[in-house]
C-alpha cells in the first residue's frame, strides 16, 4: 500500500466540511433505512424500491430519474450540479437483495424466522432489521443522507454530484428475470448517462480499498451409471456417481485453499467456496443418480484473468484424473466477472484515505485482505476510478436474534454508519470544491 498523500483542507474547505457534516441527520437516515428496507427488492425485481428512491432523491433536491430495464427491474440515477469546471463524482450502491425470502429458499437457507431474514422492516431504538437492512439498504440510505446534507448545507460546489443505485448488484444469476445479477444494472446505468470522473462505492468493512476481485462460477460433474437400490454392491456395470463425489469434494476443497494462497496479491485474497452438490431425485430414492454435480464460486484477483483461472482449474481436473483414473469427470465455467483495480495514487483513492484518517485520527495502513466482490469492479473496468469505503461489520450487540452465518445481511446499528458518512462527505467536499486541473483531470 502506498502512503497517504497529504493535502490538507484550506480553512474555507474545512468550514464547508464542518457545515455539511453538521447537516447529517442520523434520525432521518434511520427513517429512510426503515422505509427502504420495508420495500422488498430481490434481484431483478427492485422496481418498487428504485422508484421510491427516485422520488425521495427528487424531493431532496437532486434531479433524479428512474431507469427501467424490465417490467420489474430498474435503476436510479440522480444528479446535483455544481457551478461548473469541476469533476463528476458518483456515490454508488446496489439496491437489490441477495435473497428472495420465498418458500423455495427454505430448503437451502435453513429457513428464516430471524429478524434479519424478513422481507419487511423492524425498528428497535437505533437498530433497523430486515432483509438487506445492512447490505445494501444501509448504503442506499447513507449515501442519500450525504447528498441531502450537502444540499441543505449550501456548500458551493464546482463539480457535479451523482447518486447511483442499481438493481442486479448481487452475485446471482436469476434466469427467471432475464438473468438479472452479476452487475447487469450498473452496466446498464453506465451506458445510459452515468458518466463520472470518480466513484465511491459504500460496502461493509472499515477500510478504503482501491481494488476488488471478480468471480468465476464452475460446475464439476462426477459421472456414473443409473442404479437401483435393490441390487448388491459389486453388480457388474454399475458405477456410483455419488460416493466418489465425496472424495472429489475433499480434493476440490484443498485445491480452493491452495488457489487462494497462490493467487493472493495486492489487497485481494481470492477465496473460493463449494456452494452446493446436486444429484438424484428425492422422489426416486430407489435409483442412485448417474451424475453428481458440484458447483462453486472462486474469486479472481484483478491481475488474473477469468481465462487464466479457467486454465488453473483445468490443470487441477487433469491432475485429479491422472491420480484417480477410475473417475469420469467433466466440467464447465458457467459464469465469470473479471476483477477491477484503480491506481492507488489516483485522486479518489487518496481523498478517501485522507477522509478515513481525518475521521479515525490514525494512519490508514494496510487493510485486511479482501475477497468480497461488488459493482465497483464493473465501474473500474469501465474506466471510472473507484474507491470502496465502509463501516464495521457485522454490527455487534443486536437486541434481536439474528441468523447464523451471513444471514439476510439485515441488521444495522445507525451510529455505526455515521463515521462512514463523514468519511464520504470528506471525499465529496475534497473533490467537488476543486477545479478539474487540481484533480489531475
TrEMBL record:
Keywords: Zinc. This is Acetylornithine deacetylase. InterPro entries: Peptidase_M20A. It comes from Parazoarcus communis SWub3 = DSM 12120.
Amino acid at each position: 500500500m502506498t502512503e497517504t498523500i497529504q493535502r490538507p483542507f484550506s480553512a474555507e474547505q474545512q468550514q464547508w466540511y464542518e457545515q455539511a457534516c453538521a447537516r447529517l441527520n442520523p434520525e432521518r437516515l434511520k427513517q429512510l433505512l426503515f422505509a427502504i428496507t420495508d420495500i422488498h427488492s430481490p434481484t431483478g425485481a427492485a422496481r418498487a424500491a428504485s422508484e421510491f428512491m427516485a422520488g425521495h432523491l427528487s424531493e431532496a433536491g437532486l434531479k433524479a430519474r428512474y431507469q427501467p430495464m424490465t417490467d420489474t427491474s430498474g435503476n436510479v440515477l440522480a444528479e446535483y450540479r455544481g457551478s461548473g469546471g469541476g469533476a463528476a463524482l458518483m456515490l454508488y450502491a446496489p439496491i437489490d437483495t441477495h435473497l428472495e425470502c420465498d418458500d423455495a429458499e427454505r430448503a437451502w437457507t435453513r429457513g428464516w424466522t430471524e429478524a434479519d431474514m424478513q422481507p419487511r422492516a423492524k425498528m428497535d431504538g437505533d437498530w433497523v432489521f430486515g432483509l438487506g437492512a445492512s447490505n445494501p439498504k444501509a448504503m442506499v440510505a447513507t449515501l442519500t443522507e450525504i447528498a441531502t446534507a450537502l444540499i441543505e448545507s449550501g456548500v458551493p460546489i464546482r463539480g457535479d454530484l451523482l447518486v447511483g443505485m442499481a438493481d442486479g448488484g448481487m452475485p446471482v444469476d436469476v434466469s427467471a428475470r432475464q438473468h438479472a445479477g452479476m452487475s447487469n444494472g450498473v452496466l446498464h446505468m453506465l451506458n445510459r448517462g452515468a458518466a463520472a470522473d470518480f466513484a465511491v462505492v459504500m460496502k461493509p468493512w472499515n477500510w478504503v480499498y482501491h481494488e476488488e476481485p471478480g468471480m468465476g462460477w464452475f460446475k464439476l460433474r462426477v459421472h456414473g451409471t443409473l442404479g437401483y437400490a435393490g441390487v448388491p454392491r459389486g453388480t457388474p456395470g454399475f458405477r456410483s456417481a455419488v460416493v466418489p463425489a465425496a472424495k472429489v469434494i475433499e480434493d476440490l476443497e484443498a485445491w480452493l485453499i491452495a488457489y487462494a494462497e497462490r493467487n493472493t496479491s495486492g489487497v485481494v485474497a481470492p477465496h473460493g467456496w463449494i456452494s452446493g452438490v446436486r444429484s438424484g431425485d428425492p422422489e426416486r430414492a430407489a435409483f442412485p443418480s448417474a451424475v453428481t454435480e458440484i458447483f462453486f464460486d472462486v474469486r479472481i484477483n484483478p491481475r488474473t484473468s477469468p481465462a487464466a483461472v479457467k486454465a488453473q482449474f483445468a490443470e487441477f481436473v487433469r491432475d485429479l484424473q491422472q491420480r484417480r483414473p477410475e473417475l469420469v469427470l467433466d466440467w464447465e465455467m458457467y459464469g465469470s466477472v473479471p476483477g477491477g483495480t484503480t491506481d492507488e495514487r489516483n485522486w479518489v483513492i487518496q481523498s478517501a484515505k485522507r477522509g478515513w484518517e481525518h475521521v479515525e485520527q490514525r494512519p490508514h495502513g494496510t487493510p485486511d485482505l479482501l475477497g468480497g466482490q461488488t459493482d465497483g469492479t464493473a465501474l473500474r473496468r469501465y474506466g471510472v476510478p473507484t474507491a470502496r469505503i465502509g463501516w464495521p461489520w457485522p454490527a455487534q450487540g443486536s437486541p434481536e436474534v439474528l441468523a447464523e452465518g451471513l444471514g439476510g445481511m439485515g441488521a444495522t446499528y445507525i451510529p455505526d454508519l455515521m463515521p462512514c458518512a463523514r468519511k464520504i462527505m470528506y471525499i465529496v467536499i475534497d473533490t467537488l470544491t476543486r477545479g478539474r486541473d487540481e484533480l489531475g483531470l
